[in-house]
Amino acid sequence: MTIYTQAESNIRKTWILITLFLVFIIVLGWLFSYLLDNQIFLILAVIIAFFQSILSCWYSDKIVLLMTGAKLIEKRDNPELYRVVENLCITAGLPLPKIYILNEAQPNAFTTGRDVNHAVIVVTRGLLEKLEKVELEGVISHELSHIGNKDMFLQTIVVILVGIIGIISNWFLRISFWRRREREERDSANAIFIIFGIIAAILAPIAATLIQLAISRKREFLADATGALLTRYPEGLARALEKIAMNPNPLRVANDATSHLYIVNPLRGREKISWFHKLFMTHPPIEERVRILREMRV
What we know:
The chain is mainly α. The protein has one domain (1-298). It has helices at 3-36, 40-58, 60-68, 79-92, 125-130, 133-148, 151-178, 180-184, 188-231, 234-246, 275-279, 286-295, and strands spanning 71-72, 98-102, 109-112, 120-124. A 4-stranded mixed beta sheet has the order 1-2-4-3, with helices on both faces.
C-alpha cells in the first residue's frame, strides 16, 4: 500500500463514520420527538448543544495549555526545533504554529487550537532529548498533519454531535419520568415502545462515544500517513512511535480528559489491546501503526 492509498482509505472511512453519526442522530431525534409528541424539545437540545460545544472548543487550546503548564518558546530558545517546524510547515503549506515545550521526561507531543491560524504544537522535554532528528521530524510531521487535515475542525463537529446526543437523551429520560402517569394510561403497545425509547436514551450516549473514538483512531492513521508523505520517510515516525511507547516515564500532567490529544497514549499501564478495550481507545495500537508505516511505499 502506498502513502496515497493509505490516506485516501482513512479519509473515506472517516466520512463513512460521520455519515453514520448523522443518520444515528436523525433516527434518535425522530424517535424521541415521536414518543414525546413534541418537536420543540429536539430543536432546543440541538441549539444548546451547538453553542455549548462551540464555546468549549473555541477556548480548548487555552484550557489545555493551562492544564499542562506548557511554556511558549521563541526561535532563540530552541533554534533546531524551530527549524524543523518551519521547514515542515513550508513543505505542508501551513502557517507556522506557536510552539510550546512541556517540562516532562516522557517523550510525547500534541496539537491543539481551533484552526490552522490558531494552532499550537506542544512537545515534551523528553521528546527533544530522546529522539534523533529524523524521528523528531516524523513526530512534528504527524502533528502538522492534524492541522493540515483540519482534524481540530472535525473534532469540533464530532464534539457537537456527541453533545447533541447526550443532551437529547438526557432530556428524553427526564421528560419521560415526568410523564409517567400519562404513560400508564396508554395501551401496552405504546408502553413497550416508550420503554424501548428509554433504553435507546441510555445506550445512545455510549454508542455516540464509540463512534467518536472510532473517528479519532481513523484520524490518527491518516495523520501517520500524511506525516510520512511530508517527510518521505515513514521509518522516522515508526521509530519515534516505538521509542515513545517503550519509555516508562509517566506524564504527570496527563489525564483521561487530555490523553487523546497526544501522539501516543501518555497514561502508562493502560495499553491493553483486547478487542473490547480497542473500542474505547482514542489511538490505534502502536504495533498496528508501526506495521502500517513500515509497509508503506513512498
